């Protein structure tokens, strides 16, 4: 079967080789990657990877649809043969890593447990900053192991998911978190499951973006989400901007994601498969050089940003902000009552 990963990138070359090696080891057979307006050489790296047969690279430098950069890329992808010909599709980001707990940790092992699935929600498990101040050229999966509790009660964004779905015509278009344009004549036969293997109700077939919080969602599979990285890297993320939103990132985004109350190293069990692939990519003389240049660019860009007052101020606030604490169930219920009261 063809498992296609769809990715959009800007200035993330320092993390690209680890991400690709991990997901090839997990079982993705094809990668469709869109780049936009890169200054760190990410686009050149993607050209080289395309030459080596690792992926398909499309430059997405504009103009953009009013919905933003990522939606423009996904609309382009919807017209491509490699998307039409894929058996399974997943649109996700460079800071998200598929972590399968069943069988040998691969996509075929996951589908062996859920053979009739049309879609499987890969719920985030948020990995925090782990008090890392300066960016280091080390694998993300080794560096950041502090994370949110397996059962989290707030915020709801902590249980958002990306969707691995069967490309059988039930859905006609890719989406950021879930497939779009459902064929209503096929929805009754669609089978959605969560990361625990539980059958999901009809709301998930057309509109849900997050799993139920206050319960475990990860027994079979989770999506390790590393939205922050080192404080230094977070400044570069703020500088880069968001691909599907217009509002700027700040301390509020940081606080809602900086959980390090628990430890989870389960994703490292795929290392025997991913490490040789990562070494192969780094040993390519062109890719290895481009990786080092991307690392140097990050350090130089951080130094430049620190001469600008808004970024300097943000960095000092991050240094003063402690890790986020998990909200208990009773407090979360109180917050939900206020939300529902306001909605009514």
Automatic annotation (TrEMBL):
Positions of transmembrane segments: none
Q: Which domain of life is it from?
A: Bacteria
Where, per UniProt, does this protein localize?
Membrane
GO MF annotation terms: glycosyltransferase activity
Which InterPro entries would you find in this protein's record? Nucleotide-diphossugar_trans (IPR029044)
What keywords would UniProt list here?
Membrane, Transmembrane, Transmembrane helix
GO annotations of cellular component type: cytoplasm; membrane
Q: In which broad location class does this protein mainly occur, judging by the first location in its UniProt entry?
A: membrane
Q: How does it sit in the membrane?
A: Single-pass membrane protein
Provide the protein name: Glycosyltransferase family 2 protein
Query: Which organism does this sequence originate in?
Result: Pontibaca salina
Question: Which lineage is the organism of this entry classified under, starting from the top rank?
Answer: Bacteria, Pseudomonadati, Pseudomonadota, Alphaproteobacteria, Rhodobacterales
């Amino acid at each position: 079967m063809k498992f296609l990963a769809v990715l959009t990138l800007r200035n993330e070359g320092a993390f690209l080789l680890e991400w690709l090696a991990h997901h090839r080891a997990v079982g993705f057979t094809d990668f469709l990657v869109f780049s936009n307006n890169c200054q760190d050489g990410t686009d050149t790296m993607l050209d080289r990877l395309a030459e080596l047969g690792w992926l398909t690279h499309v430059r997405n430098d504009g103009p953009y649809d009013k919905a933003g950069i990522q939606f423009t890329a996904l609309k382009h992808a919807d017209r491509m043969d490699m998307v039409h010909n894929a058996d399974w599709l997943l649109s996700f980001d460079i800071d998200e890593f598929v972590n399968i707990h069943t069988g040998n940790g691969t996509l075929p092992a996951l589908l062996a447990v859920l053979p009739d699935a049309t879609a499987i929600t890969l719920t985030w498990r948020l990995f925090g900053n782990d008090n890392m101040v300066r960016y280091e050229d080390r694998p993300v999966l080794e560096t950041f192991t502090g994370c949110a509790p397996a059962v989290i009660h707030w915020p709801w964004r902590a249980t958002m998911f990306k969707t691995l779905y069967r490309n059988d015509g039930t859905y006609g278009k890719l989406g950021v978190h879930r497939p779009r344009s459902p064929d209503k004549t096929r929805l009754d036969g669609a089978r959605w499951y969560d990361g625990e293997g539980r059958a999901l109700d009809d709301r998930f077939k057309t509109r849900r973006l997050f799993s139920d919080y206050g319960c475990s969602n990860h027994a079979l599979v989770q999506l390790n989400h590393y939205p922050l990285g080192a404080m230094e890297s977070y400044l570069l993320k703020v500088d880069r901007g968001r691909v599907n939103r217009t509002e700027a990132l700040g301390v509020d985004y940081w606080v809602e994601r900086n959980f390090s109350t628990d430890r989870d190293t389960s994703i490292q069990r795929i290392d025997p498969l991913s490490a040789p692939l990562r070494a192969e990519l780094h040993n390519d003389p062109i890719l290895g050089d481009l990786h080092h240049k991307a690392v140097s660019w990050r350090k130089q860009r951080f130094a430049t940003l620190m001469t600008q007052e808004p970024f300097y101020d943000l960095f000092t606030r991050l240094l003063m902000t402690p890790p986020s604490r998990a909200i208990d169930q009773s407090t979360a219920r109180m917050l939900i009552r206020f939300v529902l009261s306001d909605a009514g």
